[in-house]
Amino acid sequence: MTKTIAIVSGGMDSVTLLHLLKHKGHEVEALSFDYGQKHRKELDFAWLNCGKLGVKHQIVDLTAITPLISNSALTGSEEVPDGHYTDESMKVTVVPNRNMIMLAVAIGYAENLGFDQVAIGNHAGDHAIYPDCRTEFVEALSEASQLGTYNKIKLATPFTDISKSDIAAVGNEIGVDYRTTWSCYKGGDKHCNTCGTCVERLEALDEAKQIDGKSVIARLTV
Amino acid sequence: MTKTIAIVSGGMDSVTLLHLLKHKGHEVEALSFDYGQKHRKELDFAWLNCGKLGVKHQIVDLTAITPLISNSALTGSEEVPDGHYTDESMKVTVVPNRNMIMLAVAIGYAENLGFDQVAIGNHAGDHAIYPDCRTEFVEALSEASQLGTYNKIKLATPFTDISKSDIAAVGNEIGVDYRTTWSCYKGGDKHCNTCGTCVERLEALDEAKQIDGKSVIARLTV
């Protein structure tokens, strides 16, 4: 049985990833990260889904490093803009090297436990403005991880070349309830429905209705 | 002028690295990491050397992740063994994925500041038991870092293929006072002189007397 640490933010992609890993029969533990994001409300949704699936879940407090990576609208004083997720204007939501930081901690934990791999829910729609979501980045980091650990821990990135709509179709197929996921970056009580990630969420949920989740799942390797 | 974040533990290698960067005219900021190591006394020596060189220094509190990487004699309940640094028995001092974790945070900070690179003092003597000190690991991580950041941040690892004795010869050449560095892993008030890293320290300081530091420096690129 493959033993996988899943990085789960509480958003659509990582919650679908968590369900997919269970669906595929992995032994799973989940880590969430508090890096000072305004929308730390997302962490409640990570907890909720882990509880539902019986997955051990820990929230890692990285707020000590928030001042070091503050040059982002998610962690600093700048406002989260409205617009489309792939717009240049959304670059202010990039958190410097966030994925490598979370992955490095998760790889350390996987090595500590004797697990096989670390899974993250980066997807094709992220590639435009988030360099640390791109296929070539996760491949290079997986290489570094295998070289830097005795367990030769790999990264599992099943969504890296599919769209968020495809992910939602996968989730619909395997029983994800997207009402128990959180996307909005603005940190309010409800989804604002106008920031980039809210717009992307609505698009994906709408488009997913036209996609056959079963055939997407058949193409995924985890 | 090259802008470099230096990871400085307070040991011989990283303190020499810090002096070398200043010697080569870099703009430098330093980060030290408290990851729950028993020998956190080393951090005082990082602070001392940064102060002497007028380098901004921050200690990053990563103790929230200590329980996740506790399967090591440096962070857990196991005792630090006596012996030689390269012995199999010293494997218990490996901290799971420690270098990637520290580097990931430092890369994030470099990206946040608009710096060019992150420097770390891994050297050839580490390669035997520390996989995350090996040349192929730091090369793969440098590749991932350049792919994952807008500033295309590189790793600078000038000591990766030289010995600790060579490093000490470099330090002697550029004015490092090794009495203001800390090596011992055991966490006592004085160097124990019997643990692997103490034995290695004494060997290096002794052998360095026979090495021409100038010619070593000429071979280093930072």
Architecture overview:
The structure is a homodimer of 222-residue chains. With 222 residues, the first copy, chain A, is α/β, with parallel strands linked by helices. Chain A has one domain (3-219): HUPs (Rossmann fold, 3-Layer(aba) Sandwich), CATH 3.40.50.620. Chain A is built from 7 helices and 5 strands, in the order E-H-E-H-E-H-E-H-E-H-H-H. Chain A has a 5-stranded parallel beta sheet with strand order 3-2-1-4-5, sandwiched between helices. In chain A, strand 2, helix 2 and strand 3 (56-61) form a beta-alpha-beta unit. In chain A, helix 1 (12-23) packs parallel to helix 2, helix 5 packs across helix 6 and helix 5 (164-174) crosses helix 7 (213-219). The longest helix of chain A is centred in the middle third of the chain and has 16 residues, at 98-113. Chain A is globular and about 45 Å long. The N and C termini of chain A lie close together (12 Å). In chain A, 57% of the residues are buried. The model of chain A has no long low-confidence stretch (mean pLDDT 94). Chains A and B meet through strand 3, helix 3 and helix 4 of A and strand 3, helix 3 and helix 4 of B.
Condensed summary:
The structure is a homodimer of 222-residue chains. The first copy, chain A, is an alpha/beta fold and 222 residues long.
Structural class of chain A: alpha/beta
Query: Could you state the order of secondary-structure elements of chain A as H and E?
Result: EHEHEHEHEHHH
Architecture of chain A in CATH? 3-Layer(aba) Sandwich
Reported for the largest beta sheet of chain A, the result is: 5 strands, parallel
Number-wise, the strands of chain A total: 5
Helical amount of chain A: 25-40%
Number of helical regions of chain A: 7
Strand order in space, largest sheet of chain A: 3-2-1-4-5
Q: Please report the distance between the alpha carbons of the first and last residues of chain A.
A: 12 Å
Name the pair of protein chains with the most residues at their interface, and give those residue counts: A-B, 40 and 41 residues
What is the top-level CATH class of chain A?
Alpha Beta
Quaternary: homodimer
